[in-house]
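=== RUN LOG ===
request id: a7f3
mode: sequence -> structure
chains: 1
length: 98
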Amino acid sequence: MKNKRQGMPPPSSRKEFEHNVNLILEDVKRAFDSGDEQLIQNKLWATIPHLKRVVYLPNGRIDLSTVNEMLRNQANMMDWMKHMPPPKMIKENDENPK
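=== RESULT ===
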Protein backbone atom coordinates (compact mmCIF):
# COMPACT_ATOMS: atom_id res chain seq x y z
CA MET A 1 0.00 0.00 0.00
CA LYS A 2 1.54 3.25 -1.14
CA ASN A 3 -0.40 5.75 0.94
CA LYS A 4 -1.12 4.60 4.48
CA ARG A 5 -3.62 7.41 4.98
CA GLN A 6 -6.05 5.81 2.54
CA GLY A 7 -7.68 2.52 3.32
CA MET A 8 -7.24 0.02 6.07
CA PRO A 9 -3.82 -1.65 5.96
CA PRO A 10 -3.86 -5.44 6.31
CA PRO A 11 -1.95 -7.05 9.16
CA SER A 12 1.67 -7.70 8.26
CA SER A 13 1.95 -11.04 10.06
CA ARG A 14 -0.08 -13.85 11.58
CA LYS A 15 0.87 -12.62 15.04
CA GLU A 16 -0.57 -9.19 14.23
CA PHE A 17 -3.77 -10.76 12.86
CA GLU A 18 -4.23 -12.88 16.00
CA HIS A 19 -3.70 -9.73 18.06
CA ASN A 20 -6.50 -8.07 16.11
CA VAL A 21 -8.85 -10.99 16.77
CA ASN A 22 -8.00 -10.76 20.47
CA LEU A 23 -8.99 -7.07 20.35
CA ILE A 24 -12.47 -8.27 19.36
CA LEU A 25 -12.53 -10.64 22.34
CA GLU A 26 -11.55 -7.80 24.67
CA ASP A 27 -14.23 -5.57 23.14
CA VAL A 28 -16.92 -8.21 23.74
CA LYS A 29 -15.74 -8.70 27.33
CA ARG A 30 -15.79 -4.93 27.87
CA ALA A 31 -19.37 -4.81 26.56
CA PHE A 32 -20.52 -7.52 28.96
CA ASP A 33 -18.70 -5.89 31.88
CA SER A 34 -20.38 -2.55 31.13
CA GLY A 35 -23.86 -3.94 31.75
CA ASP A 36 -25.25 -1.85 28.85
CA GLU A 37 -28.09 -4.02 27.52
CA GLN A 38 -28.16 -2.43 24.05
CA LEU A 39 -24.41 -2.83 23.63
CA ILE A 40 -24.60 -6.46 24.78
CA GLN A 41 -27.47 -7.18 22.37
CA ASN A 42 -25.45 -5.64 19.54
CA LYS A 43 -22.45 -7.86 20.33
CA LEU A 44 -24.70 -10.93 20.62
CA TRP A 45 -26.20 -10.20 17.23
CA ALA A 46 -23.19 -8.94 15.27
CA THR A 47 -20.04 -10.46 16.77
CA ILE A 48 -20.63 -13.55 18.92
CA PRO A 49 -21.90 -15.81 16.08
CA HIS A 50 -18.64 -15.24 14.19
CA LEU A 51 -16.47 -15.70 17.28
CA LYS A 52 -18.19 -19.00 18.10
CA ARG A 53 -16.90 -20.45 14.82
CA VAL A 54 -13.26 -19.69 15.60
CA VAL A 55 -11.27 -22.79 16.50
CA TYR A 56 -8.02 -22.74 18.42
CA LEU A 57 -5.28 -25.21 17.53
CA PRO A 58 -3.61 -27.38 20.21
CA ASN A 59 -0.65 -24.98 20.27
CA GLY A 60 -2.97 -22.06 21.18
CA ARG A 61 -2.91 -20.43 17.75
CA ILE A 62 -6.07 -19.57 15.82
CA ASP A 63 -7.07 -21.88 12.97
CA LEU A 64 -7.17 -19.21 10.26
CA SER A 65 -9.55 -21.22 8.10
CA THR A 66 -12.25 -20.77 10.78
CA VAL A 67 -12.14 -16.96 10.69
CA ASN A 68 -14.75 -15.62 8.28
CA GLU A 69 -14.65 -12.33 6.37
CA MET A 70 -16.95 -10.52 8.80
CA LEU A 71 -14.70 -11.27 11.78
CA ARG A 72 -11.53 -10.58 9.80
CA ASN A 73 -12.79 -7.16 8.71
CA GLN A 74 -14.02 -6.28 12.19
CA ALA A 75 -10.74 -7.37 13.79
CA ASN A 76 -8.62 -5.36 11.36
CA MET A 77 -10.88 -2.34 11.76
CA MET A 78 -10.51 -2.47 15.57
CA ASP A 79 -6.74 -2.24 15.18
CA TRP A 80 -6.96 0.44 12.48
CA MET A 81 -9.15 2.68 14.63
CA LYS A 82 -6.32 3.27 17.10
CA HIS A 83 -4.45 5.14 14.34
CA MET A 84 -7.33 7.46 13.52
CA PRO A 85 -7.44 10.99 14.94
CA PRO A 86 -10.03 11.64 17.63
CA PRO A 87 -13.33 13.05 16.33
CA LYS A 88 -13.77 16.82 16.44
CA MET A 89 -16.88 18.13 18.11
CA ILE A 90 -18.90 20.59 16.02
CA LYS A 91 -21.25 23.00 17.71
CA GLU A 92 -24.77 23.19 16.30
CA ASN A 93 -24.52 26.94 15.65
CA ASP A 94 -21.13 26.62 13.96
CA GLU A 95 -21.78 27.15 10.23
CA ASN A 96 -18.22 26.60 9.01
CA PRO A 97 -16.82 23.39 10.52
CA LYS A 98 -13.09 23.04 10.20
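=== NOTES ===
Helices lie at 14-34, 37-46, 48-51, 69-81.
The mean pLDDT is 86.
=== END ===
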